[in-house]
Amino acid sequence: MDTFDGMLTAVVFLPLVGALVIVAVVRGDRNIRLTAAAVALADLVLAIIVFARFDTDASERFQLIDRFDWISGTAFTAQYQMGVDGLSAPLILLTGLLGFCAVLASWKIGMRVREYFAWLLLLQTAVMGVFASLDFILFFVFWELELLPMYFLISIWGSGRRQYSAMKFLVFTFLGSAFMLVGILALFLAPNIGHFDMIKLAEEGAGAARTIIPLGVVFWFFFVAFAIKLPLLPVHTWLPDAHTDAPTAVSVMLAGVLLKMGGYGLLRISVGMFSGLVIDYALVLTILAVITILYAAVVTVRQTDLKRLIAYSSVSHMGLVLLGIGSVGLVGGSFTTIGLTGAAMQLFTHGTIAGLLFLAVGLIYDKTHTRYIPDLGGLANRMPFIAVAFIIAGLASLGLPGLSGFVSEILVFFGSFKAYPWLTAFGAFGIVLTAGYILWMVERVLFGPQRDRFAHITDSSIIEAVPLVLLVISIVVVGVYPAFLTDVFKAGIEPIVAMMS
Amino acid sequence: MISEAGIWTIFFLPIAALVIIFLVFRPFFYRRPDLASLVLISALTAALVLSVWTLKSVIQEGPLTFESHSWVTIGDMEVSIGLMVDSLTAIMLVVVTGVSLMIQIYSQGYMKGDPSYIRYFAFMSLFSAAMIGLVISSNIIQLYVMWELVGLGSYLLIGFWHHRPAAAAAAKKAFLVTRIGDFGFLLAILYLFFNRAAFLDQGLNPLNIADIHAAVPLIEAGTFAALGGLGLTWVAVGIFAGAAGKSAQFPLHVWLPDAMEGPTPVSALIHAATMVAAGVFLVARFFPVFEASNQAMSALAIVGAFTAIFAATMGLVTNDIKRVLAYSTISQLGYMMAALGIGAYGAAIFHLFNHAFFKALLFLGAGSVNHATGTFDMRYMGGLRRVMPWTYAGMLIGGLSLVGIFPLAGFWSKDEILGHAWNGGSVVDAVVFSLLIISVAATAFYTFRMIYMTFHGEFKGGVEAERSQQPVASPDEPGRKVHLAESPVVMVLPMMVLAAGAVVSGYLVNPQRGLFEIPVHWFSSFVIPALAAEAEILPLNRGLAAVTMIVAVAFIGLATAVYLRGRRVPKGVEEALSPARQLASEKYYMDDLYERRIVARGFYRYLGGFLEWFDQQVVDGVVDALGWLSRNVGWALGRLQTGQTQSYAMGISLGILVILVVYLVWG
């Protein structure tokens, strides 16, 4: 039955329309920037409305549905189906927020401005589409659509070995997509499924699907796609390269929202549809999570390039998402709800925190022209505003209470400690390592005597300050009053957990 | 009786000061920094008044309980925030707001002219708020939040002069070492929450502190479905790990001496009177859990007593006046921990209370001395009693109180601790007693060594002499110059107030017989019932008091002989002591062990180096090797390697299409 709210279609396609307008109509770099900013701001407003309109008390799990038959034939029907639940609504908000920040962070891009902003906006449409789609074909189209803008953004506007990094990103992600596609098709071809409707799959589960290949293999196919995206060990090495060579705004989008596609996929599909299997493999996943957390944290300590350092720390923090998912080992119940809510929260909080870290690092790089940590130092006095934002992001990253990172961490630990106390205790040692590399980085970059060659650098401009302020506010607000987010995530997690027991 | 809002106001006053200073004074009134300090001083004055009112309410009505408020709710789990105001909280509130107020007044003089004066008071506001929040928390998560935030305040204030590499490194070290302890605290919280079902069965919430207290007798009676056997011991050990980090107990004490890189009033407030005492507070807060576990109590007692003597020995050989006081603080915190470990709950809190006054006083005195001489190195001081009589008097009172000389504050509480150990009768009690009585001797010696080196003899040139002899050791800084004069009134006045406290707080609040309106042993009997601990209140053991006094006076005499009269130590003795002296000056090589061997070498070079190599050469190497293979397999495939993105994109799309079609056809 067709139904069309229009809200989600608008939030997904507005950036695309903006991109087309920029390509076709707008002339002049300044006008292009302003248009892009206006579009991104409008999309942020729409995303806020989506988030606000989502009703946690409503009986319908999926809301704001847009649905009509898209490709209908005898062999199969693909629906245009969008909708949000408690899991995706906050992520759409996150994408809107970071998308706007990314546009502002691109203000100084001077080369091929039109193309740049068109790709950046297209990227936003793709990610929004992934979070809003509730039909596998549509989902997959958006999932793939994200590759192209990302590839061009890194390979054209990047630095260093940008061709290599862009290609590495492309190959890894595409490999994952190939696995996912097989998984999707396997489900579709199962005689007792035979559709792409993610709402039905979420509500009925795919655990009983009679697929041609064993269902366990299908589960791992999906898992590989998400593990690459998240990323987890041992398929993480594309991320540091991509981050290091990407322009600032692209790093913000990459760490802030693209990685979250992996976490979202894990929660929506691996946990939400394959609850029986994910419970069977919970121990394996938890071990993988703990290894990812600790291994990446140790490697982070060794990094001397600021962006690589934060990229590796992202890997470590994404391990926490999987650790929270490990709480499914309890086969449902309130601890699983807590752990999964923590995992979902971690997606949001890490998005804002890593986004802010990359913004600050990008500014430092802009002004000092180096990201090599031993060359930096004593910047706090020259750029107090950026320094404060950087320190707040760092403290949030190390899980300082009062800031957002703590909330998701403690929920993850609560959930997974019940399931696997010893493994979680090891994983929780990550908080000590994180404090180590963050504070050491802050010390080396911002503190110490002022260097002569940085005597003339300036603090952030107004345009540069806006995204910093936005993200700092979101980090503090979520840290002090997390309920407005946890209540929504919980509404998305509870039906998933209910299916387990 | 004070209302709930009244108590929350104590917490929100410094928060408001923080916000006002940060958002109003820093951007708009940066030319009038003095106003920023007045904001915090007025906020703390009001907070002190409310704290005294709270204390009065608790004295009259007993512990105050209020409804808690939901912070995060997930399913049937609720993390709430609320107030737990018992006698312990009430006492801590008065100590925190009172000492903080004195120190902020003093800071106006000490920090005058600092370019970051406003930032200083903003950080001080943050710290004061977090410290207040810590002592009023009713929920263990809320407490943990505040616990970490006081750590943040400490980090920011130790590293306040962040352009100095030593300060930046010390701030980081303080945060990291305490975080290792906090890791244990976190595990304890997780373990409590792990047993949530058992709590819920009894209608209790595993995160509410009062409910944890209520669960302990049930666990001991065996009517609780979890946490039997060693369960409570693990919880206690985890909590103690957190406490040991914050209170700088062995082996996590290494950060506190370095923390002296912060401004001296910061050391007085955070690293003497309040935050470091928060570890003692934490153990006291969960005292029923500790009492239920003999192992935990013994660990507490042994670690505390060992720390007391261990730190004192390092204090004997240190030349930096603030570091002497830092070791002294570690040592005195060891007394408190040991007191808790032998069950002397009242005595421990009593000592915490007294220590806050006299140690803050000593630090402020050290700051005042620094103000005049520009240095902290006692080898370049001397003779200051003539130019700064008020500071001298303050330091002397603080020192005598620290040593425990009758009838000053320190005497009463220290004697109560020793009395408990003496009466205890177990092996642990005996060990604690012996270690603590040796510490009394060491304390007397290092305290008067410090006073003589600083105030007696001839002046040895201050920072100017230091610079000429150790140009590397002390980086050139503006504002560090010799200015031999008594400090201004804003600095002397708070010292005199604290000195008054250091003189009378011992006897006045805990008199041996009824004094005016104050009943016998008022303080001890006031704090003890809060947790229904079975600690008894001991009358003064006169024989024991005489012994400790004799020990203390004897070692003051020894210090007098060596440092005032200049008596040569016999050569044989000096040679015999030389290795020990070396060991203590090198801090028993623990910094070397931690920083150089464990962190720099074991962790960073070997483990980190190996994993980084593994990541780049093996994990990523496989990826690159696969890429190389695919690029070079066959000429035809090689031709496809055009490097043109369009063709790759085309390939991707085509591939998807092919897969789709194939499946659809077969489907």
Protein architecture, described:
In chain A, strands 1-2-3 form a three-stranded antiparallel beta sheet. Chain A has one domain. Chain A is 71% helix and 4% strand. The longest helix of chain A is centred in the C-terminal third of the chain and has 35 residues. In chain A, helix 3 runs antiparallel to helix 4. Chain A is globular. By secondary structure, chain A is mainly alpha-helical. Chain A contains 21 helices and three strands. Chain B is an all-alpha fold and 667 residues long. Helices cover 74% and strands 2% of the residues of chain B. Chain B is built from 28 helices and four strands. Chain B has a two-stranded antiparallel ribbon with strand order 1-4. In chain B, a hairpin with a 2-residue loop joins strand 2 and strand 3. The longest helix of chain B is centred in the C-terminal third of the chain and has 43 residues. Chain B starts with a helix and ends with a helix. About 1% of the residues of chain B have low confidence. Chains A and B meet through helix 6, helix 7, helix 13, helix 15 and helix 17 of A and strand 2, helix 5, helix 6, helix 26 and helix 28 of B.
The fraction of residues in strands of chain A falls at: under 5%
Major beta sheet, strand line-up of chain A: 1-2-3
The assigned structural class of chain A equals mainly alpha
**Could you state the oligomeric state of the chains shown?**
heterodimer
Terminal residue distance of chain B = 78 Å
Given as residue ranges, the uncertain stretches of chain A (5+ residues, pLDDT < 50) are none
Radius of gyration of chain A: 21 Å
